[in-house]
Automatic annotation (TrEMBL):
Residues 15-170 form the Glycosyltransferase subfamily 4-like N-terminal domain. This is Glycosyltransferase family 1 protein. It comes from the Bacteria. InterPro entries: Glyco_trans_1, Glyco_trans_4-like_N, Glycosyltransferase_grp1. Residues 179-298 form the Glycosyl transferase family domain. It comes from Blautia hansenii.
């Protein structure tokens, strides 16, 4: 058996983390075992399940610039105590430079950088992240990406392997009974529900989403916006909602364990992001047979459903409204070959990652 050390920020219920768990549940764990190196000083949503599947969770110092000396010292000691890790697979985009650099110094033979995005958050570490991006190819030995655009963004012309952001489709396929029960639980009757799942952050562009909904509501007053997720922009977004007088029309549902059922309650999924890799939530929404309206900054490779459209981020609100109107009376179905044959079905996709690790094991003689 090989133990792969998955390097993440934490293992809360978010897109990347859920994707990793989908693979973890489905790979052959007699051959490959996942352990997780996190960078938060607390227990996360998936930690108990990881342990139940035979994995381990480690808690490294946070990746703040003032912590870097402490971080590298911690990592040096970690690899001295854990020589069993021959593969480090890092999923924190440009910040992967730091754990990969530590792993290189420790002599870890396989160091995988995995790109999940097509741009960089403009936070206080933005300049550092640009620097790390320019040097990540010097500390990684192998490269993965969720899609073509994400790979080109982080690695340039270096060869990389695409690992689909696959999901367990059985949890998301449209079910009219689940829709009825979930809408009743939410107190919904005949409201038209626009939905969004994502961190309340700059990247997801909730400011535009609220503007789109406000404009749509002027034409269809029996509408509702469901926002699932938490994040650093929450208060700012709530203020915008209040400024528009939409407090009774926009529901902030926070982090949820029942996201798969909440898709059933929605009528359309709208995602006007500034940038994305291949968003897991966009894949989940399509499997739920929801019409999906993405900004043109979402890579086109996410699309596998005929009811998925893209709108230019700079387009007037009227174009977003027109696209929502196009699908306002759309009927949903329970299953179709179009969905089952998607490359994002974990029942077939898990073999891609499994074979990837086994090939590395053979090549490196691990």
């Amino acid at each position: 058996m090989i133990r792969v050390l998955q390097c993440v920020n934490d293992m809360h219920r978010a897109g990347l983390e859920t994707m990793l768990m989908n693979y973890y549940r489905n790979i052959n764990r007699t051959e490959i075992q996942f352990d997780f190196l996190t960078h938060r000083p607390y227990k996360s949503d998936y930690d108990d399940e990881i342990v139940s599947l035979g994995g381990k969770v480690y808690y490294a110092p946070r990746l703040y610039p003032q912590n870097y000396p402490k971080y590298f010292k911690w990592m040096e000691q970690f690899f001295q105590e854990h020589p069993e890790y021959k593969i480090l697979h890092s999923h924190i985009d440009t910040m992967s430079y730091l754990p990969l650099k530590a792993a290189k110094k420790a002599g870890v033979p396989v160091r995988i950088a995995h790109s999940h995005n097509t741009s960089i958050d403009k936070d206080f570490k933005y300049i550092l992240k640009q620097y790390f991006r320019s040097r990540i190819n010097q500390v990684a030995t192998d490269f993965c990406a969720c899609g073509e655009e994400a790979g080109k963004f982080l690695f340039g012309n270096v060869d990389y392997t695409i690992i689909p952001n696959a999901i367990d489709i059985s949890k998301f396929l449209f079910n009219p009974d689940t829709r009825k029960k979930k809408r009743e639980k939410l107190g919904l009757k005949d409201e038209y529900v626009i939905g969004h799942v994502g961190r309340l952050s700059y990247q997801k562009n909730h400011k535009l989403l609220i503007q789109i909904f406000h404009e749509f509501l002027n034409q269809h007053d029996n509408s509702l916006l469901l926002l699932i997720g938490v994040g650093e922009k929450e208060e700012e977004i709530k203020k915008q909602v209040a400024d528009f007088g939409l407090e009774q029309k926009v529901r902030f549902l926070g982090n949820r364990k029942d996201v798969n059922e909440l898709y059933q309650a929605m009528d359309i999924f709208v995602m006007p992001s500034f940038f994305e890799g291949v968003p897991v939530v966009g894949i989940e929404a399509q499997f739920a047979d929801l019409p999906c309206i993405f900004s043109n900054k979402v890579p086109k490779e996410v699309k596998f459903h005929s009811k998925t459209e893209f709108v230019n981020l700079g387009a007037p609100l009227s174009q977003w409204i027109e696209m929502i109107e196009k699908y306002r009376t759309s009927k949903r179905i329970e299953i179709s070959n179009e969905l089952e044959q998607s490359p994002y079905n974990i029942k077939t996709a898990h073999g891609i990652l499994e074979n990837y690790y086994l090939d590395l094991k053979a090549k490196e003689g691990l």
